[in-house]
Design brief:
CATH topology: Rhomboid-like fold
Low-confidence stretches: 1-14, 207-225
Number of helices: 8
CATH superfamily: Rhomboid-like
Number of domains: 1
Strand content: under 5%
Structural class: mainly alpha
CATH architecture: Up-down Bundle
Mean pLDDT: 82
Distance between the termini: 24 Å
Helix content: 55-70%
Order of helices and strands: HHHHHHHH
Largest sheet: none
Number of strands: 0
Amino acid sequence: MGGGPDQERAGRGPVDPERMIAEARKAFFVMFGFLVIVWLVQLANSADHYALSRDYGVVPGDLGTLPDVISAPFLHWSWAHIESNSGPLFVFGFLAAYRGVVRFLGLSLLVAVTSGLMVWFFERGGVDTVGASGLIFGYFGYVVVRGIFDRHLIDTLIGIVMAASFAYLLTVAVPGTPGVSWLGHLGGLIGGLLGAWLFRDRRPRSLPTAHSGGDTGATARRTPRTGAGNPRADLHKELDDLGLL
């Protein structure tokens, strides 16, 4: 059964409330599963006196640890370390993932790399760095600015609320904070901001249609996202105009 322009935008299917709910459900289980993995790794790590953190952390300038920018976010140095990271990781991770899990996985890889490389290139003293805080800062930066790049009202409002509520996080992404890798935090934040632009929604907000008549000027109107016979067509159009879809 074929579909017209209202069925597909830029090669992608329509985004409707049902799809948003489905993506949010997937985001919840993805983050829950991610936390389960992190805690299982912590159990094995602590049982082995944190040998995993020593063997698979990022050491500045050490070529052998360069691939460990991927493994380091799964590792921690203590139970207090993982406990302090788990709550923010789940909250910001869910908010970053609920618009699309595939996009979120790409974002996570980007943030892990930018955070780890910042430590690898600029950290001093041979410190072995591990922890999910780089991801947390990346998700935070992504959530704060995503709505601006996507021109999406709900995400913009979420970003404003998160920025106002958690602005204090930025105090540990600047030099001078003892006991934390501020470079890893800063690298994660940069990765999140970059990811918001790289993974922005490139679908057009409206579709031009030919205007019959003798007007010489070109005109365009928004094509309904659902068929005219659908009772929800008007509702979907109004929500789309507000940037809620």
